[in-house]
Amino acid sequence: MSESLSTDLNFFQVKKGIISWLFSLDHKRIGLMYLYAIISFFLVGVTLGLLMRLELIAPGETIMKAKTYNQTFTLHGVIMIFLFIIPSIPAIFGNFFLPIMLGTDDVALPKLNLLSWWLYVIGALFALSTLVFGDGPADTGWTFYAPYSVQTNTNVTMSVMAAFILGFSSILTGLNFIVTIHRLRAPGMGWFQMPLFAWSLYATSWIQLLATPIIGITLLMIVAERAFGVGLFDPAIGGDPILYQHLFWIYSHPAVYIMALPAMGIISEIIPTFAKRSIFGYKAIAYSSMAIAFVGYFVWGHHMFTSGMSGSARIIFSVLTFMVAIPTAIKVFNWVATMYKGSIDLQPPMLYAMAFIFQFMIGGLTGLVLAALAADIHLHDTYFVVGHFHYVMFGGTGFAMFGGMHYWFPKIWGRMYNIKIAKFAFALLVLGFNMLYFPMLILGLMGMPRRYYDYLPQFTDLNVLSTVGSWILAIGLITMLVNLINGMRKGAPAGRNPWGSISLEWQTKSPPPLENFDKQPELNEGGPYNYKN
Amino acid sequence: MEDHSKEKQHIVSYKENFGTWLGLMLLTALTVAVSVANASLITLTVVTALVIATTKAILVAYYFMHLKFDHKLYRIMLLIITLLFSSFMLLTIVDYLSR
Q1: Domain span at residue B20?
Q2: Are residue B60 and residue B77 in the same domain, yes or no?
Q3: Nearest Cβ partner of B91 from A183, A301, A311?
Q4: Chain A contact for B89, CB < 8 A?
Q5: Residue B25 within any structural domain of the chain
Q6: Are B59 and B82 found together in one domain?
Q7: Which of A136, A316, A388, A478 could be bridged to A366 by S-S, CB 3.0 to 4.6 A?
Q8: Are residues B61 and B77 in the same domain?
């Protein structure tokens, strides 16, 4: 970076026109292109989810047939997992803020970064094309379990090709971040002067880089099995369906940490800022990110306790699964300890962070129930699993992403949203979310199986409650998005540092200039969270 | 920003490159020889082929991909990845053998 790049133009103003965005190498523009695309797909996924909940408002066929329901929940899963939650935080906020937080002007490989975005778009088109071609979207569930995925006539091949291409996008983003963190940290920024969001992205990137190729090759095996009848997974021709489940979950469980770790990074940024306290246990949080990434590789078998896996393997995977709770709990204790005796300012980002801790804890603790072999026999493939998963993914990662959107909004657009409306939307989201998903935990304990468009009459009341919750959640989402869009267009100027944070991204202008800083930024003495309290 | 232009670049000599290539060719010949000689001993042939292939991969990584001359960190990374991959295999095999 040159010593002085003083310019009044921010990255929005440097170039105009759609082409300047679509082929931009600027990490901030690429991050925002991801934001617009990911939020669009998120809304498609939400709409599918609302339709599913509407179908389940009463027993029997309500608005769709069984096959349509199967296709709807599969597409909901594929969009939410591969198009929303896996890329969301790394691709949006990682792209936008990682270089700024490291005090550099871009990621290490900007062209590769643009390629990642284009691969994401191509993969998304593949996923959506299943809606219009052949016999419609896959009806296998997002897991594409064999042998059914080999036999069904729906568009499985296009769906798995979408996931394959999206996997490449994810790998390239991970590679880019690893190189950027190793090579482009500002002078004087050692590993333990890095912000914790960067640490979480570093751990995530290793998972993206090492685990994603496994799902890529596994999905190609499904295509080969469908096209040529190779006999890998279909027992009718000598294959082993449990092998598919091993290969699928070797990636897809670490992928849960691709989804969760960056969310934890955002929480580690928000809490010290709004508690005005130094983060408690910086190194413990940094190391626990790496520990979660590492231990998370060895727990995939807990998805297969009732699939016919051997007893010895089940015991090993159960023990390993309990172990991954330890580094996760370390983070939660450190966040709470940071808040203890802090001057807590309940601004919208902090509210989302606190909701994250509450809901993620429910998600995590219900995960331990599922990790216990005996309990899992009863709860496997019930609504308990659906409730648990959504508490972790939506109540955790989704809320952290909303928190990140409210936290970094003034830095990205240089304007502020309406705080009162943001708090109102937050209240609706928390209420709607818990009304939607908590009944699922009870339904699961009562024995209601998941992935059916119908259910027994005794489950009706809780299903009605859950569906009403989905409507409140939808109103909350609309309120939040309208408020943010209004703030983007006509919010009051926010200034450089509206939250009074001391981390590096708040030193530069809002919105940042093209090369992020007018001059080489000065690192905070004592690390990125050295508040006086 | 750090200046990486002053970092040392190791130039591998023709002698080292040729020696590595020769080693790879000999190991390939050995794989073929073992598979022909021990054609009836399928397990032994497979194990031998895997050991030789691993040795060849290490040679390529060390000499042709410059791992030997690079920072120690990259060797540690490779080791971790190898252990990770071995763990995937081990845990899956535990299931198969004890089913």
Answers
A1: 11-65
A2: no
A3: A301
A4: no
A5: yes
A6: no
A7: A388
A8: no
Rounded to an integer, what distance in angstroms lies between the CA atom of residue A111 and that of residue A113? 5
- Confidence check: pLDDT of B5 > 70: no
SS3 assignment, position B88: helix
Which residues have C-beta within 8 Å of that of residue A84, sequence separation ≥ 6?
A: A38, A41, A42, A45
Contacting residues for A66 by C-beta, under 8 A, at least 6 apart: A452, A453, A454
Q: Which residues are registered as beta bridge partners of A382?
A: A449
Task: Note the ipTM here.
Answer: 0.81
SS3 A181: helix
Give residue B2's pLDDT band: very low, low, confident or very high (50, 70, 90).
Answer: very low
Q: How many beta-carbon contacts under 8 Å exist across A and B?
A: 48
**Contact (CB<8Å) B98/A250:** no
Say which CATH topology domain A23-506 has.
Cytochrome C Oxidase; Chain A (1.20.210)
Q: Per-residue b/e over A62-71, b at no fewer than 16 CB within 10 Å?
A: eebeeebbbb
Task: Say if B6 falls within a structural domain.
Answer: no
**What CA–CA distance (Å, rounded) separates A294 from B34?**
38
Residue A437's nearest CA partner among A468, A460, A415, A410 is A468
> How far apart are alpha carbons A381 and A374 in whole angstroms?
14
Structure tokens at A483: 């408020």
As a whole number of Å, the CA-based R_g of chain B is 18
Rounded CA-CA distance A295/A155 in Å is 35
Whole-number mean pLDDT of chain A? Answer: 94
CB contact, 8 Å: B3 with chain A?
no
Tokens representing A262 are 């960056």
Q: Which of A104, A187, A298 sits opposite B91 (nearest CB)?
A: A298
**Best CA proximity match to A209, nearest among B54, B37, B78:** B78
Which residues have CB under 8 Å from A176's CB, separation 6+?
A107, A108, A109, A112, A113, A116
SS3 content of chain A, % helix, strand, coil (to 5): 70, 0, 30
Q: Once rounded to an integer, what is the mean pLDDT over residues A77-89?
A: 95
> What residues does A513 pair with on adjacent strands?
A10
The pLDDT > 70 percentage for chain A reads 98
Dihedral (Cα; A350, A351, A352, A355), 10-degree rounding: 120
pLDDT tens digits along A312-342: 999 999 999 999 999 999 999 999 999 999 9
Together in a domain, B18 and B53: yes
Number of domain units in chain B: 2
CA A425 to chain centre: 20
CA–CA distance, B42 with B55 (Å, rounded to integer):
20
- Whole-model pTM: value is 0.91
